Amino acid sequence: MALVERNPPTGFREDSNSDDNDSVFKKERNADLGRGSPNDAVINAKFRHFARRYIVNQLRKKGFEDVASKHDTASDTAEPENGSQHLLHHLAGNLAEERERQFEDILSRLGLTDDNLSETYSVIVQEMFIDGVNWGRILAFLVFSGALAVHCAREGMENRVGDVISWTQNDVERTVSRWVVEQGGWRAFVDHFDAGTWTIDSPQCILAGILLILAGGFYLLKKLF
């Protein structure tokens, strides 16, 4: 498998009460998601901004304030999240929190270093989107990037957190944003995770997929290295 070298370049809690979940999704669907047809450049810019904000917030949640502040920007704190961004942040944050230990265990077993970090990221993300893009994989992608940035900060590779953010933003532009536009924009994300699909496309299923992808990446990397 050819590896592509990359240039370094709080919300709601889910519970089992369906009425409560209905109110969550109604609130997000009715929020200001933007008007008119989705625009490639606008969606790309907003998602790049959101990806940075999500990773920075994950670093802060885990106690790495100094690292987070180096990668924060004025716009990250000044611009409020719209409805779809808030829902995405809520879902990704909850998934990361619920399986933090499993993520850290798998990332630790990968034996990440300055020398193999880029290759590792490439293998995992290529595996994640090998069969195309969907909303669950976008969530998985964000959770993985946040977990990887936190792992770097925890393991003395703070200097690579900026690389993880840049790679994530580049893959947003290369892989994710165009697909989101084709679905009709971020309003389609809110519609996908409405009360009707929540029980089918559950967080537990997404989590299982994320962990399988990471485990698969671990297997591939062990074969390559």
TrEMBL record:
Gene3D superfamilies, A to Z: Blc2-like
Transmembrane regions listed in the UniProt entry: 206-221
InterPro entries: Bcl-2-like_sf, Bcl-2_BH1-3, Bcl-2_fam, Bcl2-like, Bcl2_BH1_motif_CS
Keywords: Apoptosis, Membrane, Transmembrane, Transmembrane helix
Location of the Bcl-2 Bcl-2 homology region 1-3 domain: 88-186
Protein name per UniProt: Apoptosis regulator R11
Gene Ontology CC terms: mitochondrial outer membrane
Region (Disordered): 1-38
Taxonomic source organism: Geodia barretti
A single GO molecular function term of this UniProt record: BH domain binding
GO biological process: extrinsic apoptotic signaling pathway in absence of ligand; intrinsic apoptotic signaling pathway in response to DNA damage; regulation of apoptotic process; release of cytochrome c from mitochondria
Family: Belongs to the Bcl-2 family.
Highest taxon in the source lineage: Eukaryota
Start-end of Basic and acidic residues biased regions: 23-32
